[in-house]
């Protein structure tokens, strides 16, 4: 019998996370061996933005994309040579229905993909499909697409959203090393809503909500959260981990499903 996989939202932060000693990366490295081993992984990445259709990587051996500038050569030398997953593409087509999904062999595994999968599954021996953030969809439509894809979890597919709850590079350099009140408030507000499954609180923000405006801004790093939440199954527990804040960037991450791996690592789970 195929084991039901969790869905996760993982704060991926700076590429430097991959080559510096930090608690967030260490936690992911410890978490990976404790997670059930998936047959394939679907990763919704903040670093692949489309407008019109949702794209999915369809190459047999997608390339590793180093979509950043000015970092140490060690990062550009990193590869994540996982294979594609043609059977998963067929299932995505069948489940997505009238929400258009387009196969795209030109894309590969960007930092939003390998930046979270490399510490979790360093051998790169699990087939992976990357999915774009389609800006033509409303927040509710992102949740609907995620709900349509949720049955994949019962078929051995792990769904991973990769982004950040608070992500504002324009403000990051000015706030690095601090804990701005607006960022902390938004971080805590989102976690409360995730635990309570309050989807309206995660998709509808008042025009004067300055914390949301600063945290979400261009939205591509926030929307992958809706895929992890939208793929939630009945009976899922919710776990919170890597709940850290540095200026205008959070690494807050969530697991939906069996939270035993988090308990094993000493991280408290939220309410079911």
From TrEMBL:
Pfam families noted in UniProt: LigB
Top-tier EC class: oxidoreductase
Names of required cofactors: Zn(2+)
Molecular function GO labels: ferrous iron binding; stizolobate synthase activity; zinc ion binding
Residue intervals of the Extradiol ring-cleavage dioxygenase class III enzyme subunit B domain: 8-232
EC number: 1.13.11.29
SUPFAM superfamilies reported for this sequence: LigB-like (SSF53213)
Highest taxon of the lineage: Bacteria
Entry keyword set: Dioxygenase, Metal-binding, Oxidoreductase, Zinc
NCBIfam families: PRK10628.1 (NF007914)
Cited PANTHER family: 4,5-DOPA DIOXYGENASE EXTRADIOL-LIKE PROTEIN
Family according to the record: Belongs to the DODA-type extradiol aromatic ring-opening dioxygenase family.
Protein name according to UniProt: 4,5-DOPA dioxygenase extradiol
């Amino acid at each position: 019998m195929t084991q039901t996989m969790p869905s996760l939202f993982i704060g991926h932060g700076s590429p430097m996370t991959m080559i510096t000693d930090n608690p967030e990366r260490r936690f992911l490295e410890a978490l990976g061996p404790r997670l059930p081993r998936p047959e394939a992984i679907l990763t919704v990445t903040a670093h692949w933005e489309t407008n019109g259709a949702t794209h999915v990587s369809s190459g047999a051996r997608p390339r590793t994309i180093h979509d950043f500038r000015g970092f140490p050569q060690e990062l550009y030398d990193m590869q994540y040579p996982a294979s594609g997953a043609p059977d998963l593409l067929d299932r995505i087509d069948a489940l997505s229905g009238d929400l258009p999904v387009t196969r795209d062999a030109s894309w590969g595994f960007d930092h939003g993909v390998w930046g979270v999968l490399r510490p979790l599954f360093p051998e790169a021996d699990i087939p992976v499909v990357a999915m774009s953030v389609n800006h033509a969809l409303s927040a509710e439509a992102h949740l609907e697409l995620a709900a349509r894809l949720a049955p994949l979890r019962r078929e051995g597919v792990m769904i991973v959203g990769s982004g950040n709850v608070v992500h504002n590079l324009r403000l990051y350099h000015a706030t690095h090393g601090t804990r701005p009140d607006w960022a902390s408030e938004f971080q805590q507000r989102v976690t409360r809503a995730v635990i309570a499954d309050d989807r309206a609180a995660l998709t509808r923000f008042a025009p004067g909500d300055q914390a949301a405006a600063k945290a979400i801004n261009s939205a591509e790093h926030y929307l992958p959260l809706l895929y992890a939440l939208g793929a939630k199954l009945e009976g899922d527990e919710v776990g919170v981990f890597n709940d850290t804040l540095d200026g205008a960037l959070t690494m807050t991450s969530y697991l939906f499903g069996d939270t035993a791996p988090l308990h094993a690592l000493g991280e408290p789970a939220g309410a079911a």
